[in-house]
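Researcher: Please translate sequence to structure tokens.
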Amino acid sequence: MLHLAGRLVLHGPNFWWDLIFYNAVVFGAGVFAWLGSDRADVDRLGARALSLAIFIWGIGSSIATWSIFRGFERVSTYGDIGYVLYYPLALLGIARLLRRASRLKFSEILDALIVGLGVGAVGAALALRPLMSSIFASSTSLTFTGLLYPIADLVLFAYVAAAIKASGRHLSPRTAWLASGMVLFAITDGLFLYQSSMSSYTFGTWLDSGWLLGFAALGESVWHPSAEIEEVSESSIAQGLALASGMAILTASAIWPALFPTYALIPASATLVAAFIRMGLSLREARRLSEEELLARTDELTGLANRRLFVADLSSAVTLWSSGKSFGAVMIIDLDGFKEVNDSLGHLAGDALLRGVAGRLNAKMPRDSLLARLGGDEFGVIMRSPRIVEDSDELARQLRESLLTPFQVSGVKIRVDASIGIAYAPHHGEDASILLRRADIAMYRAKRGHLGVSVWDESADEISPDRAGLAEELSQGMRRSELVLYYQPIVSLIDDRVEAVEALMRWQHPRLGILNPEHFLPLAERIGLLHDITISALTQGLQAISGWSQAGVDTSIAVNISARDLIRIDFLDSIEAALESSGVDASSLILEITEDVLLVDPGAATRVINQLAKMRVRIAIDDFGTGFSSLSYLQQLPVHPLKLDRSFVAHLFDAGNAGVRASAVAKAVIDLAKSLGLACIAEGVEGEMALLQLRELGCTSAQGRFVAPPMAALECREWLSAHQAITTP
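Model: Translation complete:
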């Protein structure tokens, strides 16, 4: 404004006013931009590049002003060097400043160039033709600069316009100031070009104020915030029009060479080059998006579909199944024993096992079925079939059979099994989430009952609450001490004395009542609470028998230990701490492990068991005969009692060959224990006939409801006291 006022007062050009005041405003805008580069929301390099561009333009302006007033026309062209160098630096500065605000991509820069060059081509071919004929009649430098400045202004403005488009057409304050500066430059350079072509431009007039206002806007832009903006989809209308214009000019020039001037072909050709580069970027971007979409729907480890694709496919299938025109099934497959492999051999071995399992399962998939890894060691199957019951049963059988052959992982042969839950559609639900939940419930029933395969039914739902809700309740229940121990006595069949009590965890659920371990321990293992429950059982159990001992009732306690607990680095420390805090002698503690524990990491398990023996802690083999037995460990390891699994005891009196075989197996286990000098405890003794039969077979001890049911701590102490009084001579 001061510059315009000065022009009115001075009535024309003035050397000192134009040289000092005019360029002082330009340099002041550069300083202003430089000072704003230290702001937290400003890209420092961008702000300083823009500042440097303004400084260089000011130097060029000072040279041009001095040379024109002194009559050195040739020297004045050196000022054009500063003007020309301004544009690449300004482009760098604007690009950096807008990149943070609008996340401008290189593809959007090309869009801006295509539009800018297309407009330049049309302008050069039509509107600027009479002006260019006048300019080309003058010096070569004027021809060059006359073409360069308006085209460069259009490119810069198109770049800012592309940033506005990329920001969802949300004009932040910084972008508005930059756009204003570019508009002022484009208008001023356009008027300068027109006046120059008409030989009417006079240095030091009101027109020169347009550049000052433009620089003021650029300097101001650095001091204003940029909004956080989301990207939007691209619009190709402007690009298409620009590209069509460029092609039309080139095609028409090829047919009628004299129709358009040569200088119009330069931006038209550049438009096509930029468009071809943009097309290549678009193809690469489309391929990248396709690959990203595939990755987003594929499990990276196994190459199977992931949970996202599984749920999407199931939702689509349920729509068809609900109409009754087709039938389907959802299967949830959970590997048995995988966590022990993962913990003992490491995650790399676990990953290798998962890849092997995925390959075998996938080889059994029928057409139009989908196998997905849902997470961890859990897989899902969507099956479509008109004979869904028969076909799903057959597929489940094939899937489990495919896992029978041991896997070779890290030089170790590993056996895994699978528990499979099935829900039929639309019979068991017409919603994807309901079918998933019910298949999950069926899988858990298969796992805890060692059934292999289980189909959902309403009775399963009554004892298996929604797992997601139950998981949170279990965590809270741990904190509220809702998990308590019940105790079941183990009685000698020789002299009827109590040898020990087994600690059995119960969950006193505030809504569902008392839940047995099979209803929550598998879930505790999945959410990482199993070790905490084990330590709680150890602590509660040892504290209980410590209190009983002070009341005159002495006994030992047996606590179940998982493979994951046994091979933990801090397991022995936890045992020592629990014994020390309770004051119970280590010989009164029995840890029950299954023989499958020894298959996970035999070396680590052997070391820990030997250390426990040195501490005088006893080791019992639970559920003997149901796992992958290897009799060699009975000779090598310091285990004491064998526990005959309840499944053999339950069938002792079955009719026909079943009862004969069960009795033979029970006798074989009892004789084996006797020959090795080990005690044998029969589990699940539910009646007098079973007790008498086991005593006749030579079994040394028994445990079951006929002997004594699981009891709370106080009730068990009273029972032990009464039984001790009866059996003590």
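Researcher: Any highlights?
Model: The first helix runs from residue 2 to 10.
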